[in-house]
Amino acid sequence: MKYKGLTYSYTVYAFTFFLAPLLLILFYSLTAAGGDGSVTFTLENFARFFDFSNPQYMKVLGNSFRIAGIATLLCLLLGYPMAYILANLKPRLRAFLSLLFILPMWMNFLLRTYAWMSLLETNGIINTLLSKLGLPALQIMYTEKAVILGMVYNFLPFMILPIYNTLIKLDPSLLNASDDLGASPWQTFTRVTLPLSKPAILSGINMVFMPSVTTFVISRLLGGSSTALIGDIIEKQFKLVDDKGFGSAMSVIIMIFVFGLVALTREKDSEEVSL
């Protein structure tokens, strides 16, 4: 009886804080409000997004996936070596450096992005230092490069942490056995360490790619009007245009794509484990 009450409480909590907002978004996406306050069910919001005669929203979504993909790839190329180095350091130094990677996450996301604005703007810290060194100024602010840089900075810990946590838990006997069999360090890495860390890599890819696709703060502050992502379009539908139906429809479309990506990576991971 005691556990039954606890289960009921968790069910109410899950519905209130997780399912209810999703169901509300789904409701908005499938309805249109009339002038007299009436509500009708329709697929017009989805048809508007997939209008091939004017595919502006599909182009923005494709551009969002492209930029998020670049940021995710850079996070992987930077994050895996960092996680590998951390995992092979002495415990005290490892703990200290791990704290340095986690520390920025304790700061407000918006403040971290504003800090990069101060660094990258025309009269910012970086260009001021370059001018004192007699070097030409960099025009990065309000470009796609600035958006990618902001994504990599903000989401890099999401790539490092799962890979790091997997690497420090690897069974040393497997690495020693590979060494005893005459494998070189590179062979041990490619045939033992890397395959065993693939689940963490896939987890890191999901954790970086999903917020990169849906972000609007980074693109708005660092990219300006020149780099509009799907998150910016959704925000405008809710805040400026007051078109909750179309904004919700785009949110549902992104959720479907993201769920598909997660399902694909999990299926691939399951196939590799079964092999």
What would the keywords be for this entry?
275 residues, mainly alpha, MetI-like fold, two-stranded antiparallel ribbon
Q: Using only CA atoms, what is the Rg?
A: 23 Å
Strand content: under 5%
Number of domains: 1
The appropriate CATH architecture is: Orthogonal Bundle
Listing every helix as H and every strand as E from the N terminus to the C terminus, the arrangement reads HEEHHHHHHHHHHHH
Percent in helix: over 70%
- Tertiary shape: globular
Looking at this structure, what is the CATH superfamily?
Answer: MetI-like
How would you sum up the major sheet? 2 strands, antiparallel
| Sequence of strands across the biggest β-sheet | 1-2
Main structural class = mainly alpha
Total DSSP helices: 13
Summed over residues and divided by their number, the pLDDT gives a mean of: 86
Please mark out the parts with pLDDT under 50 across 5 or more consecutive residues, or reply none.
none
Highest-level CATH class: Mainly Alpha
Amino-to-carboxy terminus distance: 43 Å
Care to count the β-strands?
2
Using the coordinates shown, work out and report the CATH topology.
Answer: MetI-like fold
Tell me what the structure shows:
It is a single chain. The radius of gyration is 23 Å and the shape is globular. Strands 1-2 form a two-stranded antiparallel sheet. The protein has one domain: MetI-like (MetI-like fold). The mean pLDDT is 86. The chain is built from 13 helices and two strands; from the N terminus they run αββαααααααααααα. The protein is 76% helix and 2% strand. The protein has 275 residues and is an all-alpha fold. Strand 1 and strand 2 form a beta hairpin. Helix 1 packs across helix 13 and helix 7 runs antiparallel to helix 10.
